[in-house]
Write a structure and sequence with these properties.
mainly beta, 253 residues, 0% helix, four-stranded antiparallel β-sheet, Tachylectin-2, Chain A, 2 domains, 56% strand
């Protein structure tokens, strides 16, 4: 597992592993903030990792003190990472920030879904954007594929799976009071149909106030396992916890 960690000053990308039947073990920092003058000198976060024939590829967000951009890193073993810099120019929809990437490799192309922030609604408004690539080396922007619906301030933190030629997107649905995890589906990756909320804050425990940033994997038995960020009530430091949920069926809907 690669995840974001904050020590009160700087965001870093951390790594943990879980032996079969065992507990999670922290391995430490996978990617640190860049050096002075780099496009990620103020912190890195929101990793998404895929396995490739040459090793591993990670897309993540890096902050330069002014704006957040998408970056790429490569690794032979998943532990020693080599940053490759930014991968895409920002547009109007992500003028303030591009973050929370999700890589999806299909038989035809690579997809990159990510959150875009344009600075409106006091910086809270977010949409889900997409880009495509034949190999993951260079990307063409598709544009906005999912906007906030009625009552929502932001649609962000996408996690996309392709099951039986259908794309399933789990994402953070933020209204004026809380963040829940919602689901949308698509036949082509561009036009999406919102399907409603799939996970709401529990009102108690580690995810009592907010749930967002879903990461969903499909097991060999077809079941879906979700890891997500949870925020409890009364946490003035907003120290998010990593929580998990499991869907026993073979289809999200």
């Amino acid at each position: 597992m690669w995840y974001s960690g904050h020590d009160g000053t700087t965001w870093r990308i951390l790594e943990a592993v879980q032996p079969i039947g065992g507990e999670w073990e922290r391995l430490g920092v996978a990617i640190d903030a860049g050096f002075a003058g780099n496009s990620d000198e103020y912190g890195v976060e929101s990793p998404c990792v895929v396995s490739t024939p040459g090793g591993y590829l990670m897309v993540y967000a890096g902050f330069d003190g002014d704006a957040t951009r998408l970056h790429m890193a490569t690794s032979l073993d998943g532990q020693q990472w080599v940053p490759q810099g930014t991968i895409m120019q920002r547009g109007r929809e992500d003028a303030v920030g591009a973050s929370h990437p999700c890589l999806v490799m299909t038989g035809e192309r690579w997809w990159l879904f990510f959150s875009g922030y344009d600075g409106s609604k006091n910086g809270r408004r977010a949409v889900v954007l997409a880009a495509v690539s034949p190999s993951g080396a260079s990307w063409d922007r598709v544009g906005t594929v999912l906007e906030p619906g009625r009552g929502e301030v932001a649609a962000s933190h996408p996690c996309v799976l392709q099951i039986s030629r259908t794309f399933y997107m789990f994402y953070g649905s933020e209204d004026k009071q809380r963040v829940s995890i919602a689901l949308a589906t698509s036949a082509d990756g561009v036009t999406w149909d919102p399907r409603g909320t799939t996970l709401t804050p529990s009102a108690e425990g580690p995810d009592g106030l907010s749930v967002h940033a879903p990461c969903v994997l499909r097991g060999k038995d077809g079941s879906l396992h979700m890891w997500y960020s949870g925020l409890p009530f009364g946490d003035s430091n907003q120290a998010y916890r990593i929580c998990s949920a499991r869907f026993e069926g073979t289809q999200p809907i």
